[in-house]
Design a protein that fits this description.
alpha+beta, Beta Polymerase, domain 2, Hydrophobic Seed Protein, Hypothetical protein af1432, 4 domains, 7-stranded mixed beta sheet, 11 strands, about 10% strand
């Protein structure tokens, strides 16, 4: 493994009068032949942070942060980032993410026992060029198994966020949790309620992109399934979990509402996976309250807004996810007139391609059909025609400016609305995009607005 480590790190190890170890993900990655684009280097040693930092500083490492209470030092050198921790043993208050007490130690097994999974508790002694495996993690890596470093009930009971980390690790690596791991997570899933929304959403983002870490196909779907199987999904998305066992029309769907949602996320492009996961969240609500799925996209948009607020999803992503949810049923039967499709495209030009991605993922998730959705074929042809015809997709492409409309007698306070209407008129009739024609059309639009 020495050949994959940065030269600066090996120099540091040689300069230390104590053994310096690489631990966690880097060891797991090497032993499983899985390498990320940008590795994270977690290093540790049986010394206090001040002693380690003094050696690193002499070799030109830059200290970015020092946390004496946890024995942590964050460093940089030659463009690489490192996080050092002193060997320690932690004591937790049940479910609280931060340790209540920390004890520094020189015992590598005690340090290993404070971690989460055995596959993340394998050490590499850089100076001695050998692995140290106190808990049998190498064998678990070979078996592609996720096992806790101590009884699962204790490991998950110590830190509720480990419940989501389990899903993330499984999704990213393709490893599978053992039965004790699953049962321990189930028994403690309610502890997630004590974790901050920001931390939960941070883990969720990693889960929704778990396939990109090491290129594990559909790794994000596997991670979501672990969330489902451990009860975590029900804590994070109770509205979504209501869809388990809720059947749909068999001529369109072969999965229940929940499985369809998970598979929509599975087939979705990586930039719309939150919307793909939540697009049908209105179905359980509508089925329970009205007995049908009618209008589920509208109720779903409302529910998605509530979920995003609860999880403190960034504003722009939240707004986009709400809009995609509300629009995902548009032209579901491919019967919408071309003029309406054109206006929809212009009205939603900022999210149109993402909406198309969502429509395709939704179609594929219905029957696991990866062929192009008919609605996508239709929309692509219409969009290509619009481009060829020179349809203006934004105000900059209109052949008239707001000041020209005002000079032509359009009231200043109505100019914005008029320009938006002109865009929609040109979407259906691109030949209108000439200055004189637009001014004439604008005067008609003003009258219509006044009426």
């Amino acid at each position: 493994m020495i050949e994959i480590l940065p030269k600066k790190l090996t120099e540091l190890a040689q300069s230390c009068p104590f053994p310096l170890y690489v631990v966690g993900g880097t060891c797991r990655e090497y032993l499983s032949s899985s390498f990320p684009l940008k590795p994270d280097y977690d290093i540790c040693a049986p010394v206090l942070p001040e002693e380690f930092a003094a050696v690193a500083e002499k070799l030109g490492f830059t200290q970015c942060a020092v946390y004496k209470n946890t024995g942590t030092v964050k460093l940089k050198a030659d463009g690489e980032e490192y996080e050092f921790t002193s060997f320690r043993s932690d004591k937790y208050v049940r479910g609280v993410h931060t340790p209540a007490k920390i004890y520094f130690t020189d015992d590598i097994e005690l340090d290993a026992r404070r971690r989460d999974f055995t596959c993340n508790a394998v050490y590499y002694d850089v100076k001695a060029e050998k692995f140290v495996d106190p808990l049998g993690g190498i064998e678990d890596i070979k078996r592609k198994a996720v096992r806790t470093v101590a009884p699962a009930e204790k490991v998950f009971g110590e830190d509720g966020l480990r419940l989501m980390r389990l899903a993330r690790v499984c999704g990213a690596t393709g490893f599978r949790p053992d039965e004790e791991c699953i049962e321990g997570a189930k028994a403690n899933c309610r502890l997630l309620r004590d974790i901050s929304a920001e931390r939960i959403f941070g883990e969720l983002r990693h889960i929704l992109h778990a396939d990109s870490k090491y290129g594990v196909k559909y790794g994000h779907y596997a991670a979501l399934c672990v969330m489902r199987d451990t009860g975590v999904l029900n804590i994070v998305f109770p509205e979504l979990s209501l869809g388990a066992g809720m059947n749909q029309r068999q001529d369109f769907h072969i999965h229940d509402v929940l499985e369809h949602s998970l598979r929509c996320a599975m087939y979705a492009a990586d930039d719309i996976r939150l919307a793909a996961l939540l697009h049908d969240v209105g179905k359980p609500y509508c089925k329970i309250t009205t007995g049908t799925y009618h209008n589920h996209e509208t109720e779903g948009a409302r529910i998605v807004g509530e979920i995003c607020s609860r999880l403190k999803v960034p504003k722009k992503l939240a707004e986009e996810t709400v809009r995609l949810t509300e629009l995902h049923m548009y032209d579901v039967d491919c019967k919408a007139r071309e003029s309406k499709i054109r206006r929809m495209i212009v009205s939603n030009r900022d999210i149109f391609f993402k909406l198309a991605e969502l429509k395709q993922a939704d179609y594929s998730a219905c029957r696991d059909d990866l062929s192009e959705a008919p609605v996508i074929t239709k929309w692509r042809e219409i969009y290509n025609d619009m481009v060829a015809e020179g349809v203006p997709f934004n105000l900059r492409e209109l052949k008239v400016r707001g000041d020209e409309l005002i000079a032509a007698g359009i009231p200043k306070d109505k100019c914005g609305k008029v320009l938006d209407r002109l865009l929609l008129e040109c979407a259906a009739l691109p030949q209108l995009n000439e200055r004189n024609k637009l001014i004439i059309t604008a005067k008609r639009v003003v009258r219509e607005i006044a009426d």
